[in-house]
Amino acid sequence: MNRYLTHIIVICLIFFSTPLLSQTTRGKLYMLENDEADKPKILTLYQNNAGVILCGTTKGLYRFDGFDFSRYDSETPIKASITSIFETRKNQTYIGFSNGNIAELKDNIIRLLHFEEGFPKVAIKSIAEDSNGIVWLGTAGEGLYYIKNNRLSNINTDDGLSDNYIYKALYLPGYGVIAASDRGINICMVYDNKKYISTYTSRDGLPDNIVRSISLGDENELWLGMQDSGISRFTKNIISGSKKAKWNYGQVNDLVATHSKMYVATEDSSLVVFKYDETASSFNKTFSDHTISKLTCLLKDREGNIWAAGENELLRTGKTGLQIVYHLTTQQAQQVHCLHYTRNSALWFNIADGVTRLHKINNEWKS
User: Fold this and answer.
1) Which candidate, 209, 153, 200, places its Cα nearest to that of 172?
2) Backbone angles phi, psi at 79, to 5 degrees
3) What whole-number distance in Å separates Cα of residue 359 and Cα of residue 117?
4) What string of H, E and C letters represents the secondary structure of the chain?
5) d(CA 168, CA 165)
6) pLDDT tens per residue across span 297-322
7) Contact in structure between 349 and 334 (CB atoms under 8 Å)
């Protein structure tokens, strides 16, 4: 094996052998058009199927390639902020605006869509796609809309929705589209042109009726970020999380769940990171990052990096893409000379007493 490659492998394994302790993120900060007079504010982040990070702002749609920002042109001027972005499995990119307009990003041009039914009159806060390819839109006051066969249909409180103000919508496999609202969460689906809705509020055990954000963990666990009661994990008829301890960080503006950590964009404490156990019955704060004082949104990219945005700033937090694979002492790590990753997702490496094989079970590496 190449001598220098061996050294790199040894360094990596030494690093993995050391537990990651509480520390600041020391991430990388990027500025979007640092014009003090009229700075664009980043309102939403999305990574598309090509791996490009898209930034919806008060001054249009930008792409970020890891170094620089570039702005997309629009076919027709749309004088509204971009509040939501989503790319379907068929690579159709939808753009939601603060005035209720809906557009498509096609051939790098933003093109306004048209529906016979017209547009919503309020902001499109969130966009999702269900298993049947139906695109769902969560709005700031008109409930949910869904696009099927190029027709726009509405679901609101008259249909059984708990509230018409939707902060976030996402698809939860096995359940349907989950909509976080000013009155709990709603589980929605459309089948044979019939609307099916079930609700979950404080009457059913929810710690807080105002659910401002939702996120899916690595194993499709549903996490809730609330106005006053912090964060909780939701399973059918079971809530676990920060309701068992006083929450002192302000309202949750966004959250991202990883295998064992929760990244929370808070109103009063900027970015706060918690480590949680398997039952989500206890949360331990590991660090805070105040690089951006007021965060609006978070994003977990494909490499496991966590991005945070606020005002015209985009922060890539540090060390979030690393995972402890295997604990080695310094002496053991110095004896590693080869590393091999196989097609069946097994990781092989040598130690003094022989060869070790690791394989991934439930997102954890086991020997």
Assistant:
1) 200
2) -85, 70
3) 52
4) CCHHHHHHHHHHHHHHCCCCCCCCCCCEEEECCCCCCCCCCEEEEEECCCCCEEEEECCEEEEECCCCEEECEECCCCCCCEEEEEECCCCCEEEEECCCCEEEEECCEEEECCCCCCCCCCCEEEEEECCCCCEEEEEECCCEEEEECCEEEEECHHHCCCCCEEEEEEEECCCEEEEEECCEEEEEEEECCEEEEEEECHHHCCCCCCEEEEEECCCCCEEEEECCCCEEEEECCEEEEHHHCCCCCCCEEEEEECCCEEEEEECCCEEEEEEECCCCCCEEEEEEECCCCCCCEEEECCCCCEEEEECCEEEECCCCCCCCCCCCCHHHHHCCCCEEECCCCEEEEEECCEEEEEEEECCEEEC
5) 9
6) 999 998 889 999 999 999 998 655 45
7) no
- What's the token pair of residue 355? 């060869």
Place of tokens 């991202």: 256
| Four-way CATH pick for 28-316: 3.40.50.80, 3.40.50.300, 2.130.10.10, 3.40.50.2000 | 2.130.10.10
For residue range 140-177, list pLDDT tens digits in order: 999 999 999 999 999 999 999 999 999 999 999 989 99
pLDDT category, 361, cuts 50, 70, 90? low
β-pairing verdict for 53-57 and 60-64: antiparallel
What is d(CA 228, CA 338) in angstroms, rounded to the nearest whole number?
51
Please give the backbone phi and psi of residue 330, each rounded to the nearest 5 degrees, phi first: -60, -40
φ, ψ of residue 204 in degrees (nearest 5): -100, 5
Distance CA 330, CA 14 (A): 6
Rounded-to-10 torsion of CA 306, 264, 29, 48: 40
Q: What pTM value is reported for the model? A: 0.80
Domain ranges of the chain: 1-20+324-367, 28-316
